[in-house]
Specification:
Radius of gyration: 25 Å
Number of strands: 4
Mean pLDDT: 78
Distance between the termini: 37 Å
Low-confidence stretches: 292-297, 315-347
Largest sheet: 2 strands, antiparallel
């Protein structure tokens, strides 16, 4: 179990690293490609790329691994939300800065966790709530541009809307994460790509040159296709909230790339927001390292009552939260404590 969790953590971090390539490179490509078309080609790249991978894998796949009619509601939700989210993101990036967009992408953790808690009843620990607080503060700071005017940025709002859509989509995907990862990513990529393309034509966007289409699709295969593939695999062992938390790595990589590739300056407000984001991320990582161990203990109790000897068995559970490897725990129970448990069990 520990090995599976560590493997899932590595997959989640790799997924974040691949996704971090999205914003800075999209910013450059959108000088030639309009926002909704960009979203469309990114998803087409993911669907086509992973679809080609699927051709070499589908014969090895068991029938029960594939999506069924029962999975349709979550599959449709995944597709619709994934059409809306990247459009919001691309619009936000086109009218704002890629550095802010990269950091605000961390708000996806908040959205995913709240939806997982409220709708899907996934447990959220105290450390994760603290992380949510710091990440939310950071997102608010970065939603305002200019220390003098403090006017709310429309670009930041678009990015926040994108993360809210992705938060719900993450939870929909979690519900089908045990199914074929190849099938999920291929369906998501092709359907979302087509949906975004239709929207692009409706709003009157023009098609770019073929070389920019191919570059966008290549970026989509890596930043969306491979990233989503690894993300879904990680969800199997970590759950929606935990996996999303590890995406905290992505904005830091994205921010560095925005500085290197886009030549964006690191402002004081930006650095202040980054500080809060780092603190929040530390709490997220600390929370995912906590292991909960449950131990069942059985006690055989013999006692005499009214000249008759009675023998009873009591089984009870202890939970332990600690970091690192499992430790040995010893419990001592007095005769009074055991008899109290016997009495509370109405024996």
């Amino acid at each position: 179990m520990a090995d599976n969790k560590m493997k899932a953590i590595i997959l989640a971090v790799l997924a974040a690293a691949f996704y971090a390539l999205n914003v800075p490179f999209s910013k450059e490509l959108m000088q030639k490609v309009q926002p909704t078309c960009m979203a469309s080609f990114l998803y087409f790249g993911a669907g086509v790329g992973v679809g080609i991978m699927y051709l070499f894998h589908w014969k090895k796949e068991k029938k029960e691994e594939r999506l069924t009619r029962e999975n349709l509601p979550y599959t449709l939700g995944m597709v619709v939300l994934d059409i809306m989210a990247p459009i919001f993101l691309m619009v936000g990036v086109s009218i704002g800065s890629s550095a802010n967009a990269s950091l605000l992408g961390n708000f996806e953790i908040v959205a995913t966790t709240l939806i997982a808690l409220v709708i899907f009843k996934e447990k959220v620990s105290g450390k994760l709530w603290i992380a949510i607080l710091f990440i939310t503060i950071s997102s608010i700071i970065l939603s305002f541009e200019g220390s003098r005017s403090f006017q709310f940025s429309l670009g930041s709002l678009m990015v926040l809307l994108a993360t809210a859509c992705w938060g719900l989509e993450n939870n929909c995907t979690r519900k089908i994460s045990e199914k074929s990862t190849y099938q999920i990513v291929t369906i998501k990529g092709l359907c979302c790509g087509m949906g975004s393309f239709v929207v692009a034509k409706i709003v009157g966007e023009s098609l770019p040159e073929i070389k920019y289409v191919l570059l966008a699709m290549l970026l989509g295969f890596v930043a969306y296709g491979l990233s989503i593939f690894l993300y879904i695999r990680a969800q199997r062992d970590l759950g929606a909230a935990k996996t999303s938390a590890y995406y905290a790595v992505a904005p830091f990589i994205g921010t560095f790339l925005a500085f290197v590739i886009n030549g964006e300056e690191l402002t004081l407000v930006y650095l202040f927001g980054l500080l809060f984001m780092i603190v929040g991320t530390i709490f997220v990582v600390a929370d995912t390292l906590v292991k909960n161990h449950r131990h069942l203990h059985t006690h055989l109790i013999t006692h005499t009552h009214d000249g008759t000897t009675h023998t009873h068995t009591i089984t009870h559970e202890h939970s332990h939260n600690h970091l690192g490897h499992a430790e040995e725990h010893t419990h001592h129970h007095s005769e009074k404590e055991l008899l109290r448990e016997l009495h509370s069990a109405h024996i």
